[in-house]
Amino acid sequence: MPTVAALRPYEPGKPIEELQRELGIGDPVKLASNENPLGPSPKAVAAMRAALGEVNRYPDGACWAVCQKIAARHGVAPDRIFMAGGSVEVLNLLAFLFIRPGLNAVFSEHSFAIYALATAAAGGQSKTVPMQDGFYFDLDAMANAIDANTRIVFLDNPTNPAGTIVKRAAWERFLARVPEHVVIVADEAYFEFVRDGDYPDSLEYHDPRRMIVTMRTFSKIFGLAGVRVGYAVARPDLVQLLHKVRQPFNVTSLAQAAVLAGLDDDAHVRATLENNAAGIEYLEGEFKRLGLAYVPSHANFILTEVGDGQAVFDRLLKLGVIVRPMGAYGWPHHVRISVGLPAENRKLVAALENV
Ligand SMILES: Cc1ncc(COP(=O)(O)O)c(C=O)c1O
Description:
Elements: H1 2-5, H2 16-23, E1 29-30, H3 42-51, H4 64-74, E2 81-84, H5 87-98, E3 104-108, H6 114-121, E4 125-129, H7 139-145, E5 150-156, H8 168-177, E6 183-187, E7 211-217, E8 230-233, H9 236-245, H10 253-262, H11 266-290, E9 301-305, H12 309-318, E10 321-322, E11 324-325, E12 334-338, H13 342-354
Parallel strand pairs: 1-10, 3-4, 3-5, 5-6, 6-7
Antiparallel strand pairs: 2-8, 7-8, 9-12, 11-12
Helix pairs in contact: 3-10, 5-6, 7-8, 11-13
Bound molecules: pyridoxal-5'-phosphate.
């Protein structure tokens, strides 16, 4: 398919091991992939250790216990939960199900890179809409962009990499305008970090006439990015469609064990939120002191204007700090910096001062 041949593969944050290999840097700090700097939930780690002796068995393909637990947590029926190997898998499956050549997906410019990749991989067209005031979704323009061939609207809230949110009034106005044949993907990977009282929880807006897919992940607040697990909450008929096209065992037994234990690890979640709030406050303060413009963040990363983003990224690498250059997201003058541990944040600030 020509749309696939023209694709550039997703570029992840630079792995720590790669920097060690290439530059021989002993102890780099990685603030490039919005991971949990505290590490995984200790309860999840213990549960995975205990499950290791059973990895000769295939996992439960239906993720029965995990679906029960997540459903109870959200107060919904278990047949509305779809488990996946990371929320990216849900995005790809939705595009595979709903997008074809001649059909399109609508999303904002500068939003999560996988939306364009998944749409193009399915042979469809991406209809992107400019942001307003530089870094904020323009939901009215997104609603205007929906046409008879639109099948999906992707909305990351908070959005990555800007870190801004859509607020309740704009979201409700938008929902009222999206036709019923369009799947609304509310990608809430950073949901737990948001402290703004005006932030809408898309789960509260599910109704049988609408196709809302709420996506959450264990990669961020729960610190389980490496085991690859996330989920969608949707209408049972949509969940059934997703089951038809997923791999038979898309969530590993270790991931399932990790989720069952990690979901109860309130202490780890609390510590993560405290570290993040303090880290955002510290970094924003330091960026102000250094005269660097940044976008006030609702998530666990900050988009920061540094001049030549690629050059600053390269120079920070040599000082043992990995951030994410934003050229691929259409912001060549910015880098995205994930919140680290206090010492990691201080190392980043010292390195930034240096470059
Ligand atoms: C907006 C958004 N959605 C989804 C994901 C992917 O999460 P997962 O690790 O669950 O595939 C990310 C990860 O960075 C993200 O920023």
